[in-house]
Write a structure and sequence with these properties.
CATH architecture of the largest domain: 3-Layer(aba) Sandwich
Largest sheet: 5 strands, parallel
Radius of gyration: 24 Å
Distance between the termini: 39 Å
Shape: flat
Oligomer: single chain
Number of helices: 22
Length: about 475
């Protein structure tokens, strides 16, 4: 790649390697593209019982990966200091897929929460999983979830004995039993019920901290656990303060990109050979999976050298508009500087699909003009993802299209004027949590999602990943895209 002999081949490699959609949707990911960010190893540990992350950060990805024997073996190989191994036992306590034998679905869970303390519901789910495979005399004398919860509530001593015995058997076998909970934002359609259900789950996480081998592990959106007053119970901070956050620093975003490019079955060797030519780095294999060399995972100078051999060194004809390696992730981050790996990979894939060149003499695989278009495409996708999780956001942002930021909040609130407009938001699933406080409460909710940024002078700003997709302008910024 050093003399840029293969720009077309590199573009074809990127298009072939990067998927149209990186969401797992309950399907087990391809082992070749399972990349472990440095900071995520702690989240995979059995003692990390509460894991949070923004949309696309990897919650459902790891929820799915940890259910796979093949993937757990690879995790054990790549993370030898972790307690993950092929003998780890994994059950599903809640998730996107319907599995009535493993857990109640949303409607059933909501109905149960109206009749019982949600902590008892979650405890019943854990209990049913941990005693599976044990002696017959330990079987629960109940079939439906309603009957199971009733029995658990009526027999606290028996429940404790069952759990202690199960924990002892696991300890003797040197096995951890993980019970995984995901898609919790789908557990209810209104905030009071949702927070009650989440509070009950956190209580169960706290309870099982005292067990040696039984480990409930919940993957949650940050907004579901941010209001500590709403989910407060005695010692709740013992759980909340130990949560592990899934983040994607710049080095891991590029490490993920290398994982895809190096493992593409037809042209991946072109990329691996280029890395050896540029930095004298050799790739190793595990179970037919090429693993990214450590230098390419952790050292920004090495990553920049590789990426700029594909894109060139500048975001224009000279250095004044920045450098692709830093420019790309900085324009995809939210107000907390968090970047979704889906947005990052999507931007690069669309960059490769654009093929636009600043001139006939441009010798790199990806041009800076195409990178800007890739950010526009990724921004639209990020907005779509946001509205899948928070349908009310799109309704609030629609009247702001064409507005120039930064701007005063009064300019934004004026576009929301009218009680009827705000009342319509009450009909949406999980509306703004502070809707009753009016525009100021809504502003807090949008800020908590990383969309609005409050500047020191009180004005509102938006980062490009949302500004572009929602059609707002900024002088000198990436051009906004038209919303369909």
């Amino acid at each position: 790649m050093t003399d840029y002999r293969f720009p077309q081949e590199i573009r074809e490699l990127i298009r072939a390697a990067l998927p149209q959609d990186t969401s797992v949707s309950g399907q087990t990911p391809d082992l070749r593209y399972t990349y472990i960010p440095t900071g995520h190893s702690k989240a995979l540990h059995s003692n990390a019982m509460l894991v949070s992350g923004i949309r696309g950060a990897g919650k459902s990805f790891w929820w799915t990966v940890m259910q796979s024997d093949e993937h757990r073996q690879m995790l054990a190989h790549l993370l030898p200091k972790s307690d993950i191994g092929k003998n780890t036992k994994v059950s599903v306590g809640f998730g996107e897929r319907t599995a009535p034998d493993d857990y109640p679905d949303k409607d059933n869970l909501v109905q149960l929460s109206r009749e019982f303390d949600p902590s008892q519901i979650w405890r019943s789910i854990v209990l049913r999983h941990v005693i599976k495979g044990m002696a017959e005399d330990l079987a629960l004398p109940a079939s439906s979830w309603t009957d199971t919860v009733k029995w658990v509530i009526a027999n606290p001593e028996s429940v404790e004995q069952l759990l202690v015995r199960a924990d002892q058997e696991l300890d003797q076998a040197n096995v951890y039993h993980l019970i995984l909970f995901d898609a919790l934002d789908r557990a209810a359609d209104d905030w009071p019920t949702m927070l009650k259900i989440i509070r009950g789950l956190l209580q169960v996480l706290l309870e099982f901290r005292s067990y040696r081998r039984i480990r409930p592990k919940a993957f949650v959106r940050p907004d579901l656990i941010e209001d500590t007053k709403a989910i407060y119970f005695p010692d709740s901070l013992k759980v909340l303060n130990q949560k592990v956050e899934l983040r994607w620093p710049r080095t891991d975003l590029y490490g993920l990109l290398w994982q895809y490019l190096g493992n593409e079955p037809n042209k991946g060797n072109l990329f691996r050979e280029g890395c050896k030519e540029i930095l004298n780095l050799s790739w190793n294999q595990y179970n037919n999976v090429w693993t990214v060399p450590d230098v390419m995972r952790t050292e920004e100078d090495a990553q920049e050298t590789i990426f700029h051999s594909i894109t060139g060194h500048w975001m224009s004809r000279d250095h004044r508009r920045g450098f692709p390696y830093t420019w790309l992730p900085s324009h995809l981050g939210d107000t907390s500087k968090q970047v979704s790996p889906r947005s990052f990979l999507s931007a690069i894939r669309h960059t490769a699909e654009d093929n636009q060149r600043p001139g006939d003499d441009y010798k790199y695989a990806l041009s800076y003009e195409s990178i800007r278009k890739g950010v526009q495409k990724a921004s639209k996708i990020r907005v779509q993802e946001m509205e899948e999780d928070y349908p009310w956001v799109g309704r609030l942002m629609e009247p702001l299209k064409g507005l120039m930021v930064p701007c005063s909040f009064e300019e934004i609130a004026s576009q929301w004027k009218g009680k009827k407009f705000l009342d319509q938001l009450k009909e949406v699933k999980l509306p703004p949590e502070h809707l009753e406080e009016g525009p100021d409460g809504i502003r807090r909710d949008i800020e908590s999602l990383g969309i609005f940024e409050r500047m020191t002078d009180g004005r509102v700003n938006l980062t490009d990943v949302y500004r572009v997709g929602y059609g707002l302008g900024r002088k000198g910024g990436v051009k906004a895209v038209a919303r369909e």
